[in-house]
Every structure is written in structure tokens, then in C-alpha cells.
Amino acid sequence: MGPHFGEEPPISGINGSGTLFFSGCALRCTYCQNYQISHKGLGKVYELEELFAQIGLMLQRSSVHNINFVTFDHYLPHAILLSNRIKRCFDIPIVANVSGYQSLNSLRLMEDFIDIYLPDFKYADPDLSKRLSKAYNYPKIALDAIYEMVRQKGMLNIKEDNPCATAVKGVLVRHMIIPGHIQNSVEALDMLFCEFGRSLPISLMSQYCPVIPQRDQSLNRTVTEEEFLMVLGHALELGFLHLFFQYPEEGLTKLYLPDFESQDPFQITRSDAQEKTFRDLCPNLSQRLQREE
Ligand code: SF4
């Protein structure tokens, strides 16, 4: 638990996002970057009041812009109690940082206590979702879930004149590019565009890192610049109005790979947040895209 500077600019802002990682995960993707907690169950048991006290301390020590519940579906009743406690004492947005594989029933239970949804939309290809997350129906479930999230909160309130200003409400959809599976990314963007149009804020992530050896050999490497540019080019062609992205530069995957056995799992610092946010990781993007053409 603590301030995290690696989220998208409207979430991390200047002071960071107060992230709270929950152990375990319903999907258990074969390549999970957080496998120490999602697969191995690393973590600490807290009583509700103890956890609330820790959050209070974090808010005293740092002016984080939000409280960010990461992958908490399987603790939904506890998360509801905790968020009620937070909301009674602090005026701060609560973020649901989730896989996208949520049922409509659980989302309706979240409606009153979540302000910002940060869902993944991982797969358009059901065969790929079956192979990597044992969830053939992921594309349908996730699209329905995002539809419900947008119904509840609308699009993330990104300010036109200052896209990095911290947001207080809405939905931002993340898509992590999987190496060797660019067509999945292209089709995922098409599906999001067809369902929600170009005003849906999108975050394209290139931080994939092979932390667990994979049968599919393309998954044992990082995303190439060429793959990233193909996906980004497609997103730009579709015309999404708010597009955050991580350029696959050297050091990116290391920067974003957490070690939950360490006191401070993420190496991303406040100055990284200012200098290397999603947007700024690619200062020469337009020149590079022109060169590609
Ligand atoms: S949904 Fe996210 S946290 Fe869960 S296993 Fe997949 S990548 Fe990991």
C-alpha cells in the first residue's frame, strides 16, 4: 500500500495514486506481471479497522489523489465496508482497478462506492482469452462490464486544456499489448470503438514482461517497437480523442515490474511520473510515426 506514480497522468497526478493491492485474482492470467500476489497469494492479513488506519496514515503522509483498489473483486464485501469507512471520513475518489471480467451484479454493488473505473480490455480473441486466462467468454463479459461502468460513471473527466489534471469520476479502459498477438490488439480497439466511439479514453500499455516462462514462444519476450507502432497507428486511425500510451523504450518493463517482496514494490518515482509518464515516454513520437510512413 502506498503512493504509486505509474498510473496514467489523470490517476497518478503529481502526488501519486494511493494503491491498495489485494492478494489473489479470479483470472490468473498465465503471464501476470503481479504473479507474486495474484498466483502465489503473497500478502498480509488485515482487520478492516487496521487497514482503514493504514489508509488514514497514508493520507496524512502524502496527498495522494485517490484510493486505488487493485483487483479486489474477490473481496467485494470487504471492499464495500472499507470504502464506506473511507467515504465517511475523507473526500477522495475511489478507483476500481480491475480485469474487466466483472459480472453486472458485482458492478451494481460497486456503483455507490466507486468513482473511477480502470478496467482492462485484454482480449478480442476468445481463443486467446481461453488459452491465457481460461476465460473463453472474456470479450463478451468485459464489453458488457465496460458498458455498465460507462452507464454508471460516464467517460473519465479528462480536461481538454490539461489532460494530466487528476480525474474524479469516469471510465478509462486499458489494453496491454501482448507480444506476437497484434491482431488481438487491433480487434480489441475496433470493438471498443464500435461500442463506445472515439470519446472513450484508452490507455495502450507496452509494459508486458515475461515473468513466468510461457509455452507460446512469442510470450517469452517484450513488445517490439514495430508491434507497438502498428497498434498505436491503428488507435490513431480510429481517432480516439484521449489516448495514453507507454512507448516500449529500454528500461520500461523493468520500471513497471513490481516486486511485492520489497518494501517499495514499484521503482517508479515522483520524478519518473513527471518525466516519464505514459504520454512523455515518447517525446519523438510524431517524428517516428512519420519515419514509419
Ligand atoms: S487479471 Fe490482472 S492481476 Fe489478475 S492474473 Fe490477469 S493480469 Fe494478473
Question: Can you walk through the features of this model?
Answer:
The protein is of the alpha/beta class. The chain has one domain (2-292): Alpha-Beta Barrel (TIM Barrel). Helix content is 39%, strand content 12%. The chain is built from 12 helices and 9 strands. A 6-stranded mixed beta sheet has the order 1-2-3-4-5-6, covered by helices on one side. Helix 3 packs across helix 4. It starts with a strand and ends with a helix. 41% of the residues are buried. Bound molecules: iron/sulfur cluster.
Strand percent estimate: 5-15%
Number of domains: 1
Task: Indicate the overall shape.
Answer: globular
SS content category = alpha/beta
Which sheet architecture does the biggest sheet show? 6 strands, mixed
Helix content: 25-40%
Which stretches of 5+ consecutive residues score pLDDT under 50? Answer: 280-293
CATH topology: TIM Barrel
Bound molecules: iron/sulfur cluster
Quick structural overview:
The protein has 293 residues and is an alpha/beta fold. The chain is built from twelve helices and nine strands.
Please outline the helices and strands:
Layout: E1 2-4, H1 9-12, E2 17-21, H2 35-38, H3 48-61, E3 67-70, H4 76-89, E4 94-98, H5 104-110, E5 116-119, H6 126-133, H7 138-153, E6 170-171, E7 173-176, H8 182-196, E8 202-205, H9 225-238, E9 243-245, H10 252-256, H11 270-275, H12 285-292
Parallel strand pairs: 2-3, 3-4, 4-5, 5-6, 7-8, 8-9
Antiparallel strand pairs: 1-2
The protein binds iron/sulfur cluster.
